[in-house]
Write a structure and sequence with these properties.
Radius of gyration of chain A: 27 Å
Radius of gyration of chain B: 22 Å
Strand content of chain B: under 5%
Shape of chain B: globular
Keywords (chain A): Membrane, Transmembrane, Transmembrane helix
InterPro entries (chain A): DUF4331 (IPR025566)
Oligomer: heterodimer
Shape of chain A: globular
Order of helices and strands of chain B: HHHHHHHHHHHHHHHHHHHHHHH
Number of strands of chain A: 12
Distance between the termini of chain B: 61 Å
Largest interface: A-B, 105 and 156 residues
Helix content of chain B: over 70%
Helix content of chain A: 10-25%
Pfam families (chain A): DUF4331
Number of helices of chain B: 23
Structural class of chain B: mainly alpha
Protein name (chain A): DUF4331 domain-containing protein
Organism (chain A): Plantactinospora soyae
Chain lengths: ~575, ~425
């Protein structure tokens, strides 16, 4: 047998280095690097997969639910995903995830389980063929324009009262990301073509829009010892989001199909993905456990607020029916951090704990029908639906809306606190100023009735940079151009027959103003409204709501949080 | 300076070169990938950079914002991974520790971040500890499960690793979970499942850097199966300058006989990311091209880079052993491999220890470790080659013939030096 070559030594010993000058330089450099602490420069590679996935496509950012102002008897949901979409800087197309399901859920009997679910799934139609990365090949004048090389469609399914999902539409057109005026000279037309009317009177829209949320994020600096001296700029001005909007008759979502007897619904959005089993056997997940909820949102800001970063992950994973079973969640509600911070900074005494008023707002809806609820108002708890079985009621976080509240002709951005009972937290309209509601509530509330001067102006952002439209889907068109231009971006709606809320006179926040408000609901046709609301009731709402919202408000929601598992912007 | 006399001038020169490379080039070259050529739909926005900018701005204003410190630290870690710029690790360390300094409790993000940093430094035990600490604070932390999965994998605890991966999948079946699930399958030899999940991960990618990662791993799965065309397709599917993709393209060029292109690729790669692994591969390629002197220089650079790591408190005797073997220092290689095996019983370490034992003539001992490397069922041509050569040294020609053939069957291109050696040896063995 011939000798078999083994793995012979491959390399001779290295040569000597040349000059001491080089060496001296090296010592200096090595010393400099040593100063940095242990570096991984010399580590041989092991598998290092992305830790914090950029997963904004599944990130629920906002939910709106309101009675359609121009279409009586119809409820509109608007849900947003993918915050901070930058319109500028290249051909940016922000697709919905094709491996996720986007859900709007409605609970009408208060058991914290969905009685109605609307589910969107998205598909890509990619005609680029690998020859180009561009999304269009010339001006796009319609959704089926040949120049539009990449687009998405959706399937909408719905499920009621535990029955299986039924498909409502397939191949629904998604309004594309607005790539620019040259590529999409008449974007309003594309928006219109992506707005679909379905049998049953449903209207559906999915696609890009101006982010309707408006606030100055710096307001939350106070949570970390900052102040409010530098506010007044809409941090979200100029950014777009991906929106899903749906309009359905009250009767489709009300308990027993009867919005007269049962006008209150609770709403939340979720995103889920298919469950993956390492066992490799498809379908071995238990029935109904084949999906994993990865994001959830009900009330604005609450997701991130009441729940600090450490509880946020749990919240995003949990169904509402589990909310009240997590002691840490309940503790954050009954013993919130923010009033103490405010007390420390502004000397406003924190309300006594436990905060059962917050439990009412956060977990049950505002009602007189819970044993400990201090807010003696029947506004928006499912417990006030006449056909609800109270024993099955399960406290849970969701955006609750009383469908019977009459549409306000001139919505007040401060909503319920300013006597506009149709506004947040009774559902949420696009023009509701969630942040200032919170801040004004703290001002007027906190039992002294004394304003906190430093908070008086709130975040100084009172309205969205772009106007909303008067008809479905109400959202302003997507922005084009650089984000930091400031103010409106010219992307606004073509029509705006809804009065600009910010143009309304500032509501008085004096006790007299509150007192005046207190008589406002006399004769209110809502069956569940108490005949008379006391000023103290409203103060209670104000205190509770303000505290609720400000607790760590939104600091994960809107900050670019690569580190946040659910906000991996 | 006390240890200075022990460092020879040669080392210092190379250390200096390495330092310049590490500090200079890495810092200058960020990963600004070009547009994807096909398939992907990802916004051409560097969200990682935007995240860092915003967190920095926020922290300038509100230095007490522990959440933003953690965000910043984790973003730096991602940046380090993506750009191969080691200076980001020091920054990550600072930001994460600042986050914990502001808020020591209920700060799972910072804890998981420090765990990820420990993983990057090959302190896998420390990483697992941080991950468990984070999970005690927040049982729903996907990051913590990801860190734990990585650590358990590298520690050679495959069952614990799979459990952590499943926990991660059950919590958040997105890209970070899918890529880890894919790797878990791959280590068990389930290549089809691994590929399927990596494709799923690619579909979930939202960022060019994530696309680059998934493409590279898909390329690797094809490469390790000997599917040269498939590997090349993945490595070139995006124009990204992600360093591993440069390695993939260079490997394919070498396998296809395009030696100049391959060497140029490795030259670029090692200037961007001068890690021992890449430098060793470069040296191998130079050696195969008959350019021994240049190969030696790269080996010396690998050794210097490695020393830089260990002098700074890092512990990676796997790399040290590989360097020592390449430099014909079998005794040192064996000592290092044994020491790494004491730390962790991972397949790669078993393979290295077996090979180092072989280099020291301890064939009987070597066999057990070489088999151990394949215990989970991984399809790895290098493991099979090492096993075959050990079996041959023990005189088991049938087994050697089988395993050398298996190595070449798995991936005939697995090494520019070892694959031809396997083929020669196999030919010399003749037919049974």
């Amino acid at each position: 047998m011939a000798t078999i070559p083994g793995p012979a030594p491959r390399f001779r010993s290295a040569r000597r280095a040349k000059t001491a000058v080089v060496a001296a330089l090296c010592v200096a450099l090595a010393g400099a690097l040593t100063g940095l602490g242990p570096s991984t420069a010399g580590a041989s590679s092991h598998r290092e997969a992305p830790l914090v996935a950029m997963d904004p496509a599944i990130d629920n950012t906002d939910l709106y639910a309101f009675v359609s102002p121009e279409r009586p008897g119809y409820l509109t949901f608007i849900a947003n995903w993918i915050p901070f979409e930058e319109p500028n800087g290249g051909p940016n197309f922000y697709p919905f995830a094709t491996d996720a399901a986007y859900n709007i859920n409605v609970d009408n009997d208060g058991d914290a389980k969905a009685d109605a679910t609307f589910r969107w799934t998205f598909q890509n139609v990619d005609k680029r063929g690998g020859s180009t990365f561009l999304y269009n090949n010339g001006p796009v004048t319609s959704l089926d324009d040949e120049n539009l090389l990449f687009r998405q469609t959706y399937k909408l399914e719905s499920k009621f009262d535990g029955e299986p999902f039924k498909t409502r539409v397939t191949g629904g057109p998604v309004a594309p990301s607005r790539i620019g005026n040259a590529s999409m000279p008449e974007y309003a037309k594309l928006r219109q073509q992506a707005t679909t009317t379905l049998p049953g009177g449903w209207k559906v829209f999915a696609g890009q829009a101006d982010d309707p949320f408006f606030l100055d994020l710096r307001v939350f600096d106070l949570l970390y010892g900052g102040d409010l001296s530098e506010t007044g700029q809409d941090t979200l001005a100029g950014y777009n989001v991906n929106s899903i909007a749906l309009q359905v008759p009250f009767s489709d979502v009300a308990l027993k199909g009867d919005p007269k007897r049962n006008p209150v619904v609770g709403v939340w959005t979720t995103t889920d993905r298919a469950r993956v089993r390492m066992s490799g056997k498809a379908g071995d997940a238990p029935e109904g456990r084949d999906r994993v909820q990865v994001s959830r949102l009900g009330n604005p800001l609450v997701n991130e607020v009441v729940l600090p970063a450490n509880l946020k992950d749990a919240f995003n994973s949990l169904p509402p029916e589990k909310d009240a079973t997590i002691p840490a969640v309940v503790k954050r509600v009954t013993d919130p951090e923010l009033p103490k911070l405010i007390e420390g900074i502004y000397g406003v005494p924190a309300p006594a704990t436990p905060r059962n008023d917050l439990v009412e707002i956060f977990l049950t809806g505002i009602t007189t029908r819970t044993p400990n609820g201090p807010i003696k108002v029947d506004l928006n708890s499912q417990l006030n639906n006449r056909d609800v079985t109270a024993s099955r009621f399960q406290p849970s976080e969701m955006l609750r809306l009383n469908l019977s509240t009459p549409v306000t002709k001139t919505p007040d951005r401060l909503g319920v606190l300013a006597g506009d009972l149709q506004g947040f937290p009774n559902g949420r309209r696009l023009t509701d100023d969630a942040v200032d509601i919170a801040i004004q509530a703290v001002e007027g509330a906190a039992q002294t009735g004394k304003l906190v001067d430093a908070l008086a102006a709130g975040d100084k952002v009172d309205a969205n940079d772009n106007g909303f439209t008067g008809s479905f889907p109400y959202l302003a068109l997507p922005n084009v151009g650089a984000v930091n231009k400031g103010g409106g971006t010219g992307a606004g709606a073509t029509t705006d027959d809804q009065p600009d809320a910010s143009a309304q006179p500032e509501p008085s926040m004096t006790p007299a103003g509150l007192a005046g408000l207190a008589t406002r609901d006399d004769g209110d046709p809502m069956p569940v409204m108490v005949a008379k609301t006391t000023a103290w009731g409203l103060v209670g709402i104000a205190a509770a709501l303000g505290t609720l919202i400000l607790v760590g408000l939104l600091r994960q929601r809107r900050r670019p949080t690569a580190a946040e598992p659910t906000q991996p912007l | 300076m006390r240890r200075l006399p022990r460092i020879r001038l040669r080392s210092l020169a190379i250390l200096g070169l390495a330092t310049v490379l590490l500090l200079g080039i890495g810092g200058v070259l960020g990963l600004r990938s070009s547009a994807p050529a096909t398939g992907e739909v990802v916004p051409q926005v560097d969200r990682l950079a935007a995240t860092i900018d915003r967190a920095q701005e926020q922290l300038r204003r509100v230095p007490g914002d522990h959440g933003s410190w953690a965000t910043l630290g984790l973003a730096y870690l991602e940046q380090a991974r993506v750009t191969a710029d080691p200076t980001f690790f020091a920054r990550a360390d600072g930001a994460l520790r600042q986050s914990l300094a502001v808020r020591a409790d209920d700060n799972s993000a910072a804890m998981a971040g420090l765990g990820a940093l420990a993983n990057a430094r090959h302190d896998f035990t420390g990483a697992a500890d941080w991950a468990r600490k984070a999970l005690r604070s927040n049982p729903y932390s996907a990051e913590a499960y990801a860190v734990l999965a990585d650590a358990e994998t590298q520690l050679g605890h495959p069952d614990a690793a799979t459990r952590a991966v499943q926990d991660l999948l059950d919590l958040r079946p997105g890209l970070s979970a899918l890529t880890r699930a894919s790797y878990d399958h791959e280590q068990h030899g389930r290549t089809a499942e691994a590929t399927g999940l990596m494709r799923q991960a690619l579909a979930a990618a939202f960022d060019p850097a994530e696309v680059a990662f998934c493409r590279y791993q898909l390329g690797e799965l094809a490469w390790h199966s000997g599917d040269l065309a498939g590997a090349e397709r993945e490595y070139t599917a995006t124009g990204s300058g992600y360093p591993p993709l440069i390695q993939g393209r260079a490997k394919v060029a070498a396998a296809r006989g395009r030696q100049g292109e391959a060497l140029a690729g490795y030259a670029e790669l090692t200037s961007r990311s001068p890690t021992p692994g890449y430098l060793l591969e470069y040296a191998e390629l130079l050696m195969a091209a008959g350019r021994g002197a240049e190969a030696e220089a790269q080996l010396a650079l690998a050794a210097a880079t490695h020393r830089l790591f260990t002098d700074n408190g890092g512990a990676d005797d796997l790399a040290g052993a590989a360097i020592a073997l390449a430099r014909s220092q079998p005794a040192e290689a064996l000592a290092l491999a044994r020491r790494e095996w004491q730390r962790r019983q991972f397949a790669e370490v078993a393979d290295m220890l077996g090979w180092a034992l072989h280099a020291n003539g301890k064939y009987a001992d070597a066999l057990g470790y070489a088999r151990r490397a394949e215990a989970l069922g991984a399809h790895n041509a290098k493991y099979a080659y090492h096993l075959g050569m050990i079996e041959l040294a023990l005189g088991d020609r049938d087994a050697a013939r089988r395993d050398l053939a298996r190595a070449l069957h798995i991936n005939p291109y697995f090494s520019p030096l070892d694959a031809p050696a396997a083929a020669r040896t196999l030919a010399g063995l003749g037919t049974p």
